[in-house]
Amino acid sequence: MNINGISYRAIWPEQDGSSVNIIDQTRLPHDFSVIQLTDLSSAAQAISTMQVRGAPLIGATAAFGVALAMQENASDFGLKAACDVLLATRPTAVNLRWALERMQSVLSAASDIDRVKIAWQEAKLIADEDVEINRSIGVNGLPIIRALWEKKRNPVNILTHCNAGWLATVDWGTALAPIYAAHDAGIPVHVWVDETRPRNQGASLTAWELQQHGVQHTLIVDNVGGHLMQHGQVDMVIVGTDRTTAQGDVCNKIGTYLKALAANDNNVPFYVALPAPTIDWRIQNGVTEIPIEQRDGAEVSHISGLDATGKVVVVNIAPVDCQVANYAFDVTPARLVTGLITERGVCAASKDGLLGLYPEQMA
After folding, report:
1. Residue 253 annotated as part of some ligand binding site
2. For position 292, what pLDDT does the model report?
3. SUPFAM superfamilies, per this entry (predicted)?
4. Which residue from 55, 230, 319, 327 puts its CA 20 to 30 A from 11's CA?
């Protein structure tokens, strides 16, 4: 995507082939900062501290993390140790495990002397594949938005939760990919952007992305969505997902389930956009089987922003020593999902729907 007229991906290897660049998402929207990952430790830290976030981007970063680790220790022990470290950084997004298992499979068959070269090749391939997958999600979601526009001939109002744009992937995004495709096709769209507490990814990332791309949008607090739906101001909801079960349950940023309930009550279509690596074919019931990450309570009790002097400051908004629970994700049952938008097409949120697009998983 273009930032101030310059094309960027969310992660890319340095030209010397020994390090990786990322956009530090913890500094957005007030400071656009590119930082360099030079070893396994810096890659793991980037994932755990959410300098990179979003399931597809976490997977790509983990793949590059393995490549960086192979430069330090390309032995079997080094490979396993690197994957163990990276796997422990975030428990919910399944793309992390998927990327590590893919890297292990490819590298286990190679000699130690060849592993560095092969690791970089595979990590770059994963990144390139992610870009094409997300572009295809945009193509497949575009007809849904086009149909709504042709029916009403007014701007299509779309509500999204959290950030599932190009910052959550290598490029294009998942939930925002159809929105970008519609905008670029000349279809008037307007996006209701949930602030997405507690880390405010909607306010700091999604709104910033849409602004950069010229897409009309309005930032709202998380609890406004239901009100807007009751008054006919939301034509559809599109969100991303960090893990989708074989039965079509979707796990996304905390608060997504409540949006799905409101959408269901008001007959608003609720779509989830996802790439194949986000599907966890090993589990069936999202509520009981998906591990839900609990993060530092300071993310809830403290908030950062610009003060009157233009300086970024962090302030406490809760009573001192207040006990805080910070659940990062929730699960939306398949029954509340209108459809899943994937790189292979749109399907019902069900086992049969998913297998119709991915028949190779029947085995």
Report:
1. yes
2. 95
3. NagB/RpiA/CoA transferase-like
4. 327
| Residues annotated as catalytic (active site), given as ranges | 242
Helix, strand counts (H, E) of the chain: 13, 18
SS3 at position 344: coil
Convert the pLDDT of each residue in 303-338 to its tens digit.
988 888 988 899 999 999 999 999 999 999 999 999
Q: What integer is the mean pLDDT of 124-132?
A: 97
Residues 58 and 91: their CA atoms lie apart, in Å, by 11
> Does the structure show a pLDDT above 90 at 57?
yes
Is 90 one of the annotated binding-site residues? yes
- Mark out the alpha helices in 90-167 (DSSP H runs): 94-108, 112-152
The answer to whether 109 and 93 have CB atoms below 8 angstroms apart is no
Q: Is 9 annotated as ligand-binding?
A: no
Residue 89 has pLDDT above 90, yes or no: yes
Question: What are the residue ranges of helices labelled H in 153-273?
Answer: 176-184, 201, 207-213, 225-230, 256-265
The candidate with the shortest Cα–Cα distance to 235, out of 168, 310, 157, 172, is: 157
Give the chain's domains with CATH numbers.
2-129 (1.20.120.420), 133-362 (3.40.50.10470)
* Pair 328, 55: CB distance under 8 Å: no
pTM of the model: 0.94
Buried/exposed code over 197-212 (b: 16+ C-beta within 10 A; e: otherwise): bbbbbbbbbbbbbbeb
